[in-house]
Design goal:
It is a single chain. The protein is about 80% helix and about 0% strand. It is mainly α. The protein has one domain. The N and C termini lie far apart (about 40 Å). The model has no long low-confidence stretch (mean pLDDT about 90).
Length: about 80
Amino acid sequence: MSVPQLQAVQDAIEAMARTLAMAGGLAQGGRRIDLAGLDAEMASICDAAMRLPKGMAAPLRPSLEHLLLQVEQLGLLLAA
Protein backbone atom coordinates (compact mmCIF):
# COMPACT_ATOMS: atom_id res chain seq x y z
CA MET A 1 0.00 0.00 0.00
CA SER A 2 1.14 3.49 -0.70
CA VAL A 3 1.03 6.77 1.17
CA PRO A 4 -2.29 7.71 -0.53
CA GLN A 5 -3.78 4.46 0.81
CA LEU A 6 -2.50 5.32 4.29
CA GLN A 7 -4.11 8.74 3.96
CA ALA A 8 -7.37 7.15 2.85
CA VAL A 9 -7.41 5.00 6.00
CA GLN A 10 -6.63 8.05 8.15
CA ASP A 11 -9.42 9.99 6.44
CA ALA A 12 -11.86 7.13 7.12
CA ILE A 13 -10.81 7.04 10.78
CA GLU A 14 -11.35 10.79 11.10
CA ALA A 15 -14.77 10.56 9.44
CA MET A 16 -15.78 7.77 11.83
CA ALA A 17 -14.56 9.82 14.79
CA ARG A 18 -16.79 12.70 13.69
CA THR A 19 -19.75 10.33 13.26
CA LEU A 20 -19.22 8.84 16.72
CA ALA A 21 -18.88 12.29 18.26
CA MET A 22 -22.16 13.36 16.65
CA ALA A 23 -23.88 10.16 17.80
CA GLY A 24 -22.60 10.75 21.34
CA GLY A 25 -23.90 14.28 21.34
CA LEU A 26 -27.31 13.17 20.15
CA ALA A 27 -27.42 10.40 22.74
CA GLN A 28 -26.47 12.82 25.52
CA GLY A 29 -29.28 15.07 24.38
CA GLY A 30 -31.75 12.24 24.72
CA ARG A 31 -32.16 11.78 20.99
CA ARG A 32 -32.64 8.36 19.53
CA ILE A 33 -29.84 7.38 17.18
CA ASP A 34 -29.60 4.79 14.43
CA LEU A 35 -26.30 2.93 14.48
CA ALA A 36 -27.07 0.82 11.42
CA GLY A 37 -24.03 0.54 9.22
CA LEU A 38 -21.49 1.71 11.78
CA ASP A 39 -20.28 -1.82 12.49
CA ALA A 40 -19.67 -2.49 8.79
CA GLU A 41 -17.84 0.79 8.35
CA MET A 42 -15.72 0.13 11.44
CA ALA A 43 -14.88 -3.35 10.13
CA SER A 44 -13.86 -1.83 6.81
CA ILE A 45 -11.55 0.64 8.55
CA CYS A 46 -9.96 -2.10 10.64
CA ASP A 47 -9.51 -4.33 7.59
CA ALA A 48 -7.85 -1.53 5.62
CA ALA A 49 -5.54 -0.70 8.54
CA MET A 50 -4.54 -4.36 8.93
CA ARG A 51 -3.66 -4.61 5.24
CA LEU A 52 -1.11 -1.80 5.59
CA PRO A 53 2.50 -2.85 6.11
CA LYS A 54 3.26 -2.95 9.84
CA GLY A 55 5.59 0.04 9.81
CA MET A 56 3.18 2.08 7.76
CA ALA A 57 0.19 1.37 10.00
CA ALA A 58 1.94 2.28 13.26
CA PRO A 59 1.06 6.01 13.07
CA LEU A 60 -2.64 5.07 12.92
CA ARG A 61 -2.59 3.42 16.35
CA PRO A 62 -3.47 6.55 18.39
CA SER A 63 -6.38 7.35 16.07
CA LEU A 64 -7.67 3.78 16.24
CA GLU A 65 -7.35 3.77 20.03
CA HIS A 66 -9.34 7.01 20.13
CA LEU A 67 -12.08 5.36 18.04
CA LEU A 68 -12.20 2.49 20.51
CA LEU A 69 -12.60 4.95 23.37
CA GLN A 70 -15.39 6.74 21.51
CA VAL A 71 -17.21 3.44 20.88
CA GLU A 72 -16.90 2.48 24.54
CA GLN A 73 -18.20 5.89 25.66
CA LEU A 74 -21.11 5.69 23.25
CA GLY A 75 -21.93 2.22 24.56
CA LEU A 76 -22.04 3.60 28.11
CA LEU A 77 -24.33 6.44 27.03
CA LEU A 78 -26.72 4.08 25.29
CA ALA A 79 -26.76 1.66 28.22
CA ALA A 80 -27.70 4.42 30.69
